[in-house]
């Protein structure tokens, strides 16, 4: 039964993330307000403000396929252990926990 819950949870979260991605690009509805409100509601699933998601996602598109965002490959001068740990943190979902924690820290200590 646990496996079935895991499959259901995965399908639900992947669907939510895919829709959130479309909201972030203002593509789901023709009305930008509807995209914002829908995205804000859906972002609650990930405990992440839609505005922060949109800003981070736009930054991702600016840095995509550059050295700044090359987390799955490494140069000989890179710390391979650090790169491997980052990759597993992403695969295990620790990235989302880190985002939630850093959002709370940013609210408490905005000067950081």
TrEMBL record:
Q: Which residues cross the membrane?
A: 34-53, 85-109
Domain spans labelled Fatty acid desaturase: 7-104
Q: Where in the cell is it found?
A: Cell envelope; Cell outer membrane; Secreted
Cited InterPro entries: FA_desaturase_dom (IPR005804), POMP_repeat (IPR003368)
Assign the protein's first listed, main location to one coarse class.
other
Gene Ontology CC annotations of this record: cell outer membrane; extracellular region
Give the UniProt keywords, A-Z. Answer: Cell outer membrane, Membrane, Secreted, Signal, Transmembrane, Transmembrane helix
Look up the record and give one Gene Ontology term from the biological process aspect: lipid metabolic process
Q: Which Pfam families match?
A: FA_desaturase
Q: Which NCBIfam families match?
A: POMP_repeat
User: What is the name attached to this protein's record?
Assistant: Fatty acid desaturase domain-containing protein
């Amino acid at each position: 039964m646990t496996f079935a819950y895991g499959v259901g949870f995965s399908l639900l979260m992947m669907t939510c993330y895919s829709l959130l991605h479309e909201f972030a690009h203002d593509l789901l509805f023709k009305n930008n307000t509807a995209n914002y409100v829908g995205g804000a509601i859906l972002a609650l699933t990930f405990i992440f403000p839609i505005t922060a998601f949109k800003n981070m996602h736009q930054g991702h598109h600016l840095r995509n396929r550059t050295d700044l965002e090359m987390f799955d490959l490494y140069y000989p001068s890179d710390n391979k252990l650090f790169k491997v740990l980052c990759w597993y943190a992403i695969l295990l979902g620790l990235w989302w926990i880190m985002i939630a924690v850093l959002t709370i820290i940013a609210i408490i200590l905005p000067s950081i």
